[in-house]
Every structure is written in C-alpha cells, then in structure tokens.
Amino acid sequence: MARTAGRPTRSKAEIQEFRSKIGKHALEIYRVEGFGAVSIRRLAKEVGCAPMTIYAHFEGKTDILRFLWADVLRDMSHDIEKKLKSVVDARERLRAAAQAFVDYWIDHPDHFRLVFMSNDVTRADVSAFIMDEDTLAHFLMFSGFIREVHPEEHDVKMSTDTLISGLIGIALCMNTMPDYPWADAASMTNQLLSSIST
Amino acid sequence: MARTAGRPTRSKAEIQEFRSKIGKHALEIYRVEGFGAVSIRRLAKEVGCAPMTIYAHFEGKTDILRFLWADVLRDMSHDIEKKLKSVVDARERLRAAAQAFVDYWIDHPDHFRLVFMSNDVTRADVSAFIMDEDTLAHFLMFSGFIREVHPEEHDVKMSTDTLISGLIGIALCMNTMPDYPWADAASMTNQLLSSIST
DNA sequence: TTAATATTTGGTACGCGTTCTATATTATTA
DNA sequence: TAATAATATAGAACGCGTACCAAATATTAA
C-alpha cells in the first residue's frame, strides 16, 4: 500500500524513547518518595508534557509501573547473588537462593506489592504481566540451580515453575496475612524444596 | 471510673450492626455489578448515610472489601465440597481438594484479586489481612485432609501452611502472568503435594 | 505552497478515596 | 431542664485515573 500524505507514524525508536523517558522519571520519583508519589499527572508535569500525551504512549498507570519492575527485580537478583557468594555446594546454593528470594520479598513488602499485586481490583480484565527476557531471567536463574543439583532431572521446567510459584506464594501469604501464625519462612521453603528434590 | 455526662459510646452490637449493613449492601452491589461498582460514596448514598459516617465505622475501602472475602471463600468451599463428593480415597481427596482450590482461583480471577491482591500499592503500611475463625476454616480444611492421609505426620501445621501458600502461589502466578508458559496447574499441584507426602 | 494526516495539547468532566472543618443531632448525667 | 460528650452530617477540598473533544502543531506527499 502506497504512503499517503500526512505526518508519518512515530518511529519505534521515538516511541521507545518517550516511554523510557517516562519510565525513568517514574523510577526516580519512586526511589525518592515511594510508589504512592508516582502519578500520571505529576509525571506529565515534571517531564514536560500533557497528561493525555502519556495516555498516547501507555495503556494506563499499570503500564507505567511495569517499568519499575525491572529495577526491583535487578535489586533482588543482586541481593541473592551477594548471599550466594560464599556458598559452593550446589544443593546448598539452591536452598540459599530460594531462601534469599523469599526473604527479599518479605523484607521489601512494598516491592512485592508493586510487582505481584499491582493489578487494579476494579478492572475485570486480566491485564497481562508482560515480561521481557531480561526480566524473566531473574526468575529463571532457579532453573540453573536446579539443573546443577539434579542434572538428570527430566522436567526441570516443571520443577522450576513449581518452585518459583511456591516461593512467591510463601511471600504473598506472609506479606498479606501477617497476623496469621504461619510456619516460619525457612521451614516452608525447605519443605517446598523437598518436592523438587525427587 | 465513673460515667460522666454525655452520649454513651456505641455499643458493640450497634457497631456490628452498622458494619454488617454496609457489608451486606457492598456484597449485593458486587454480586450484581462487580467490584468496580462498589464505592464508598455510592454505598453511603444507597444505605442512607453520609460518606463520612462510613469512615467512622471502617478504616477505609479495603476494610469494607473484607466483608466480601467471606462470601467468596464460602463459594470456594462449596465448589470444593461439590467436587469432593464422589471421592473416597483419602489421598485422592487431598489431591482433588488441592486441585479444586487452584482451579477455583484460576476460574475466578476477579475473586482472586479481591481476596489476595486488594492491598493498595500506594499504601506503604502493610494492612493486615484479618480473618475470623470462620474465614480461616476455609483454608484450614486442608489440615484435615492432610491428617487423614498422614495420621502419623508430626508437623501437620507446617505441611498445611506450605501447601496453602504454595497453592495460592500457583494461582497468583497463573493469574497475573498468563503469558508466561507455566507448566500446567495440575502438574504443579501434584509436585507441590509430593513435598508434604514425606 | 497546499492539502492531508499524525500527534500533541488544553480544557472540561466524572467519579473516586480520603481528609478537614464546622454544624447538627443524639442520648446520657447532673 | 440544662450541660455534656459521642456521634452524624453537610460541604468543600485535594489529588487521583481516566475519558472526551476541539484546537493547535508537526510532518509528509502532491
């Protein structure tokens, strides 16, 4: 189809640039003042555009908050790596990683809320938790740990998925139901790990 | 201390009555029009009081939404019971219950969001997920199932907690990250169960 | 340049949760 | 009855997410 007259559609690069400008500023606000301070109106004002312009580039606020996930997950990964430095045994590395994972989310409840509980209840539709490969890598590191412990394991993927969702579940429960006397996180993590250690 | 003059404090019964009146009406709205339709302003208008009066009885909107949890959990329990009717073997009952639990939350994503993801991200404080005993019972039924399968099990509580949080985690992951190719829920549930079957 | 089209902007609007203040209402004791 | 204290109310205000719309602006093909 031949190009007609008129202003051309924004290039992918332009769109990307604007989105990341907004995203970076959102990150800055959140780091200094917390999530509550991140608002579309404020973002627009401080970045120098109209609020509606943001809606031309993002689906909504949740779409902006996704930009913060990467930062949080990176922080989490660093935290885990730090704790793993002195651990050599493969089995113990897996255990320590799982434990560090849970601990991170328990120690940073606001981060947990941002990443795992940021879907608006008022929305009926299931808004997708879209992740790029870099982001996913922060979760899939567990695949590597599992493979180290069980090189013969036939279904590493299922073990990984079960472990990850289980660990997230532990964090969710301890975060959102702090008054219920849960068994301690370490014990639950260990028991969960026992399910994938054949 | 002697009573002084002045209007006496509301009795517990009065407080309870008002709270349940609001709660019941919220339930009605939500059943007909969904969660998005439940708002404090509307609640006040339809129940015949000022919006501020509600704030005298509830901490905030989340505090009201808690009234809907009981309803959702009851619904979930009924669903599980129905599916368990024809299952006699204890081990299979546990498995079927766990599966039905996960399935329920996957089939009713809006209910899942209400119960497990209704904490406002903007709030820094961890608002407690307070449950009464009736509500808790809907979760603790798993203790019974586990005990039936493993009468000798020394730490039923830990197994129960690990199972519940793990199942919730599976539901959370599949609900909030539907685009990620998770292993199927049944497989993950089974693997999770293997961790408590010693 | 002109016409066509994409995008941005500003303004207005709705309903929301929440907070504040000032005023009224109520039920009790003195 | 009068004073008093608990409670309820109305009203305004703030900032929010989101939607709609008309006007302005930018960028291209003809």
TrEMBL record, chains A, B:
Key words of the record: DNA-binding, Transcription, Transcription regulation
Molecular function per GO: DNA-binding transcription factor activity; transcription cis-regulatory region binding
Residues within the DNA-binding region(s): 39-58
Keyword check for Hydrolase: no
Record-annotated HTH tetR-type domain positions: 16-76
Domain of life, per lineage: Bacteria
Record-linked Pfam families: TetR_N
The protein, known as: DNA-binding transcriptional repressor AcrR
